Amino acid sequence: DIPMTQSPSSLSASVGGSVTITCRASQSIRTYLNWYQQKPGKAPKLLIYSASTLQSGVPSRFSGSGSGTDFTLTINSLQPEDFASYFCQQTYSPPFTFGGGTKVEIK
Amino acid sequence: EVQLVESGGGLVQTGGSLRLSCAASKFTFSSYEMNWVRQAPGKGLEWVSYISSGGSSIYYADSVKGRFTISRDNAKNSLYLQMNNLRAEDTAVYYCAREKTMVQGVIITRVFDYWGQGTLVTVSS
After folding, report:
1. Confidence of residue B107 (pLDDT cuts 50, 70, 90)
2. A-chain residues near B111 (CB < 8 A)
3. Distance between CA B13 and CA B9 in Å, rounded?
4. Residue B79: in which H helix or E strand, if any?
């Protein structure tokens, strides 16, 4: 299995601000990295795949980068609906493990 | 739009069994690989099990291997998870998730592009 480590586990930010979330793999996963958003009581929603490709319909204020072992999810111009939890997932090698999640809260 | 609706969750005693179902609609179910993913209260996501489109390939997380059985009925557009010998640590919301292959030039990657709303399983002594 490939453990995925996310940081921070939580953060506070203001509407209009920016946040960056980090995801680290225990070994190289090339760019086989997905990001999901989850709101309380809801199912996860795919945001980004292949480390940097936005899923259809996802606003351009979301962006992803990285390759190998280190990846980032950046959200610019935070909107009220962006306050949620975010999870990374590696799909380089099964089982497709998830990071522990990052909760983005309103400051 | 694609719909996945889980059912079958509930309260069960330690050592008991439950069978979860996931009803799929608005897409060709038989063409897609499917997964079960769970989330313990206040915790992160944990992949549980995978089944190929035809059901011939199946994988499990080590934490459930030997106790859980994934299956599907493509004629009924349904995915199942039979859970036996349940433990307190199996308490979680269980989601079914569709797996899709995304092709970008020579890069082929997989995503869980649609998820159900989840069903809560509570294991109590």
Report:
1. confident
2. 34, 46, 49, 55, 91
3. 13
4. strand B78-83
